[in-house]
Amino acid sequence: MNRKQTLIKLGAERLAEELLRLAEHSQTAAERIDYITSSRKENLNRFELQLDEICDGAFYDWRSVAGYAYQLSQLLSNLKDSIDESCEGVMRVRHFFEKDSSIMESCDDSGGTVGMVFSIDATDCFVYFSKKCERKEFVAQQLLELVLDDQYGVRDQLIEQASDCLPEQWLRWLVEQLQQGDEEDSWSATQRNTLLQSLARQLKDARLFEEVTLRRTLSFTSCLDVAQVYLENGDATRAEGWAERANLEFPSKHNFRSYDYQTIRREIYRQLGDREGEERMAWEIFRSNRSVQRLAELLQTLGEEQREAVVTGETAQILASSPEILIGSDVSFLLQLDNTDAAEQYLMKRIALLNKIDYITLTEWVIQFAQNSLLASLIYRELLNDILLRGYTKAYHYAVDYWIQLQQLSPQVSIWEPYLTHQQYQQQVHQEHGRKRSFWQQVSERGG
After folding, report:
1. Buried b (16+ CB within 10 A) or exposed e, 184-197
2. d(C-alpha 443, C-alpha 439), whole Å
3. Exposed, middle or buried: residue 389 (CB in 10 Å: 0-12, 13-18, 19+)?
4. How far apart are CA 199 and CA 182, in angstroms?
5. How many CA atoms lie within 13 A of 400 on its CB side?
6. Which listed residue, 129, 219, 272, 307, has the most CB atoms within 10 A of its CB?
7. Percent helix, strand, coil in the chain (nearest 5)?
8. What's the whole-model pTM score?
9. Residue 158: count of CB within 10 angstroms of its CB
10. pLDDT cut 70: percent of the chain above it
């Protein structure tokens, strides 16, 4: 029996008593009871009062900010159920947005919880009322005034969803208003350009997006953005021109957004009907960072029937690559394919390069290589060395775990050459880190 049915069986009187008892200790519960027992008019009047109370100067630190965000979210939810006149709802939500200064200054929102209330809950509430409000000029005006005064960066999602509540006529009106701003004010101009680019995408107006982008200093990213918008609108020729411009004018920026550049080029070839170019770029994307996700993308171009041939050929290529280079993504790719044997073979030839792999990846690998006691031991050694070399005392309990794991794996390894035996490695750790008393004390306490 689910919890709802269980509660129903308790009866109304018992539930009422429990709710009232809960309300004595929870402000949230008390407010919820007030809401469900009041008329819509009473709840609407309470909205402004509660909003002011929430912004009364109390500060919510990181421990209490989640509860603060819940109160704000619940307030917006109640508002949606309390208003019949949609245009009034738009104004009420606008008032909520205009409290962003008081709200954001009243909490530690380093985790972004309260900001999400604005970008999701409040934005959804604004769109909800705006769709129903027949005075679209009024909606457009409220939207414009809100996004132009976004001091805390919590109103930008409003413009992203403008097309959900306004027809093209009023989206074009927004464009006209935003184009009339002061170009001398660099911050304002940048803000307006960002808003205009969003509207251009929603209008599927690639020329407008290009025009707005050209007002500012170009970059590799902005060139790719224009190319992407042209692609979205089916103009592969102009997209190709912008992708080529990004490549020629900003060659040093490729590493920053290489995947985006490659995928744009692949889509350009696809739209232009250049099968050879599309396949070449698909292979380039895959081999730049092999993964099962990129394998799936490659097979979308080549055809699923090529899977076995691709996997076999790429595995052979990985194993035949230079032993002087360890590519972590290739190991992870082989493990994702459940080809542990190939991954072990590849890694055992590159043990000296393990220190080039990040800590988190090593913790994932060591679990997957558990059946190979020698390889698992060598990875545990690298994990242990990493913590001890950094002297990171807060992580010593992990180092102790690795020390004990090494002791347990040692009897399972019959041949250590050309590596240090377990005893030799222990001696080395004692010599190099013997003064790390906190670590050795924890080892002793754990019986290691």
Report:
1. eeeeeeebbbebbb
2. 6
3. exposed
4. 19
5. 18
6. 129
7. 75, 0, 25
8. 0.79
9. 27
10. 94
